[in-house]
Design goal:
It is a single chain. The protein is an alpha+beta fold. It contains 14 helices and 21 strands. 33% of the residues lie in helices and 24% in strands. The strands form five sheets. Strands 1, 4, 5, 6, 8, 9, 10, 11 and 12 form a nine-stranded mixed sheet that branches. Strands 15-17-16-19-14-18 form a six-stranded antiparallel sheet, sandwiched between helices. A two-stranded antiparallel ribbon has the order 2-3. Strand 4 and strand 5 form a beta hairpin. The longest helix is centred in the middle third of the chain and has 17 residues.
C-alpha cells in the first residue's frame, strides 16, 4: 500500500490573534488543570480553548469558538494548499538538539493494511473524547506524530535545503524551545516529497488516540454520505520525522506505585533475577547508575529511605518467563521487563490502574518527590527506549505498555489546523 501524502489549506492564526507565544500549547493530553488555567490566562484566543475547553459543554463551546474566530479572522484559512517543514531546536542537558520533520495530510490507513503501525496500547475513553471533538468541529486540531526511515537521507537533505530559506514562523517558546516553520506550496517540491515518501512504512510515535479516533470518524462519515478518496476526512494532518534524525529524542517515563512496598521478601525475590546494589538516593546518583548501564537492562527503585540499582542477570531466563513465543527483542524491552518480571512475577501485582495504582513521572526528581510526599510508596526508574527499537518492534505488531515512550519535544498545537468539513477536498 503506497503512502498518500497531500498538501492542505492550513488554518492558522492571523496577526489579529496576538503573539504566537500566547496562543500555542502542548498537545491536549499533556495539559493538566494547572496548565489549562495558565493557558486560559494567556489569551482569549489561546488554543487550549479549542483542544481542551475548561467549560463543561466542551464540544459545543469549542465548535462555537472556532466559528466565531474564523468569522472574525482570528483564524484564517490559506488560499493555496501547502506542506510545511517544522524545525525544533532545544537543549537536553548540555547537548543542543535539532529535530526536523514534515507537516502534511496523510491518508488514514487501518493498522491491518501494514502501512501505519502503532507501538502503544490505547483506551476507549480518550478515543471517544477525540471522536466527539472531530464530530463537533470537523477539523484536525493537532497533528499525529509519525516516524519513518530515510537511510539514504533523501527527505533529510530536502529538509536541510528548505531550512536555508526564509521561514513562515520563527519564535522561541517559554520552555526555551525554538520553533521554525517553512511553507512549501510549489508543485515540484510537493511532488518530490510525495514521491520520496510513497514507499515508506510509518509508525505512530505520539497521538495513537487521535489517529484511531480519526479512522472511527472517517468510517462513520463514509456510511452517511457520498465520498471520494479526495475527501479531506480520509486524511489526517500529521507531523512525520525520520528515525535517522539526531534530534529524535525519547525521554524515560518513570513509574511510581501508590500502595506497594519494598519488603525483605520482595528484595529477596528480586535478587533471583537481578544483581542489586545500594545507590545513594539522590537524583544525581540514580541518574548516573542508569546512564552507566544504559546498554543493559537496568532499573532503580526508591522507597523513601533507600535506593537500589537493579541489573538483569539472565536475559534468556527473563525472555522465557515474559515472552509467550514472541521474539527475544520484544520481551526484553525494559518497560516490559519491569511490568512482567518485576511487577507481575516478583511482586505479584495484576493490572495497574492509572492514578489509582500507578503514577507516571517525566523526571527522576519528580518520581522521588512522589514518594517523599507519600503520594506513592515506591518509585521505579528506567532508561529511555531507543526510537529505532520503537520503529522495529511496531512493525512486528507488538505494542508497548502505556507511557513507555515520551518523544520530546512534542509538536506544539496551534501552528496549523486542517479542515475536514463537508465538501472539503485535498
Amino acid at each position: 500500500m503506497l503512502v498518500d501524502i497531500r498538501p492542505f489549506k492550513a488554518i492558522r492564526y492571523s496577526k489579529k490573534a496576538g503573539s504566537i507565544i500566547d496562543l500555542i500549547t502542548q498537545p491536549y493530553d499533556k495539559i493538566d488543570s494547572l496548565m489549562q488555567r495558565s493557558y486560559y490566562n494567556k489569551s482569549i484566543y489561546n488554543y487550549c480553548r479549542l483542544i481542551l475547553p475548561i467549560e463543561n459543554n466542551k464540544y459545543e463551546v469549542a465548535q462555537k469558538r472556532i466559528v466565531e474566530w474564523m468569522n472574525n479572522q482570528i483564524l484564517i484559512k490559506d488560499k493555496e494548499p501547502a506542506i510545511f517543514v517544522s524545525r525544533q531546536e532545544f537543549q537536553l542537558g548540555e547537548k543542543n538538539c535539532v529535530r526536523i520533520g514534515l507537516i502534511a495530510a496523510i491518508y488514514l490507513y487501518p493498522y491491518n493494511e501494514n502501512t501505519v503501525f502503532p507501538h502503544e496500547v490505547t483506551y476507549k475513553e480518550p478515543k471517544t473524547d477525540r471522536t466527539k471533538m472531530l464530530e463537533s468541529l470537523q477539523k484536525d486540531l493537532e497533528p499525529v506524530f509519525l516516524i519513518y526511515s530515510d537511510p539514504k537521507k533523501i527527505t533529510i537533505n530536502f529538509f536541510s535545503r528548505i531550512t536555508q530559506t526564509p521561514p513562515l514562523i520563527d519564535f522561541k517558546d517559554s520552555s526555551g524551545i525554538k520553533h521554525t516553520i517553512w511553507k512549501i506550496s510549489d508543485f515540484q517540491s510537493i511532488e518530490f516529497v510525495r514521491d520520496a515518501l510513497k514507499d515508506k512504512i510509518l509508525v505512530v510515535a505520539d497521538g495513537h488516540h487521535r489517529y484511531e479516533s480519526a479512522i472511527i470518524y472517517r468510517d462513520d462519515r463514509r456510511k452517511k454520505e457520498e465520498w471520494t478518496k479526495d475527501s479531506a476526512y480520509n486524511f489526517h494532518m500529521s507531523y512525520i520525522v525520520p528515525v535517522e534524525e539526531d534530534g529524535l529524542v525519547v525521554l524515560p517515563t518513570h513509574r511510581a506505585l501508590k500502595e506497594f512496598e519494598l519488603t525483605p521478601t520482595i528484595l529477596n525475590k528480586l535478587s533471583e533475577f537481578f544483581s542489586l546494589q545500594i545507590v545513594d538516593p539522590t537524583v544525581e546518583s540514580l541518574d548516573s547508575f542508569l546512564k552507566k548501564n544504559s546498554q543493559k537492562h537496568a532499573f532503580c527503585v526508591y522507597n523513601g529511605t533507600k535506593a537500589y540499582g537493579l541489573l538483569l542477570k539472565n536475559e534468556t531466563q527473563a525472555s522465557t518467563i515474559i515472552n509467550n513465543a514472541k521474539s527475544k527483542e520484544a520481551g526484553l524491552i525494559d518497560v516490559i521487563v519491569l511490568r512482567d518480571l518485576v511487577f507481575k512475577r516478583v511482586m505479584g501485582i495484576g493490572k495497574l490502574k492509572m492514578h489509582q495504582d500507578i503514577l507516571y513521572a517525566e523526571s527522576i526528581k519528580v518520581a522521588l518527590e512522589k514518594v517523599d510526599s507519600r503520594e506513592a510508596k515506591l518509585a521505579f526508574l528506567v532508561n529511555p527506549i531507543d526510537p529505532k527499537i520503537v520503529w522495529r518492534i511496531a512493525q512486528n505488531g507488538w505494542r508497548l505498555p502505556e507511557k513507555s515512550t515520551d518523544f520530546y519535544p512534542k509538536p506544539y498545537s496551534g501552528l496549523t489546523m486542517m479542515d475536514i468539513s463537508n465538501g472539503e477536498k485535498l
